[in-house]
């Protein structure tokens, strides 16, 4: 089997990313709570990841990394997106997250397009707005409790999302997408951080991340209990503490 390709995503990859994320997150307990009717309305679930992928690719502070493998489609070999990591830089900007006119203009355009489309699109019925609001509160609290010092964001690369399509798991793709973030942290002289799902935890620990604590979210899982969110950090050995 040929080796997977790893590269930074562009807007041309949005569709492939959206399909990969929706497939990879279909059985995830957090997305299950936020999108309880995602299996009945898979197009809405893909639509969410499409909007998210476009916004992150056009965000100056985020680098979207993808992995592709060759697959056969109608007798032709094409590259399929089978993995994705969204890494966000907090604290000091890095050369890779510098302001660009292309991203600034693109993001205004896409914002306007989404607003215009929202007038004509049917109402979203697959997600749970109460669970999403509660998750947003959880995110703010996690951010404040773990990743702030003296009122400032810690200087770090933070993994927002990691997803590998079920057809390409256990081939080292998730691990490599994590390493590529750690390499950025080494280059920029900062740490790396993330909040893990139960499935992601072994991948992160195998790449040197340590659990700092576990935050119990207000969002409830399928068993009606709060979903635990382990908080992990990769500590850069070059930093004197
Ligand atoms: C978690 C996920 C990204 C892992 O991707 P992957 O490409 O299969 O990961 P890798 O092949 O790089 O695995 C690296 C190591 O992590 C561990 N690991 C990965 N998946 C594992 C699993 N299901 N159970 C136990 N260990 C696992 C193993 O140590 C593995 O090394 P090995 O295959 O040599 O034993 C993928 O399963 C996924 O997308 N899951 C659904 C979404 C999700 O949970 N994302 C994480 C959000 S925080």
UniProtKB/TrEMBL annotation:
Q: Which molecular-function annotations from GO does this UniProt entry contain? A: acyltransferase activity, transferring groups other than amino-acyl groups
- List the Pfam families hit by this protein, alphabetically: Acetyltransf_10
Which Gene3D superfamilies does the protein's record reference?
3.40.630.30
The UniProt entry, under InterPro entries, shows: Acyl_CoA_acyltransferase (IPR016181), GNAT_dom (IPR000182), Trichothecene_AcTrans (IPR052523)
Q: Which PROSITE patterns match?
A: GNAT (PS51186)
Q: Where would I find the N-acetyltransferase domain in this sequence?
A: 88-228
Name assigned to this protein = N-acetyltransferase domain-containing protein
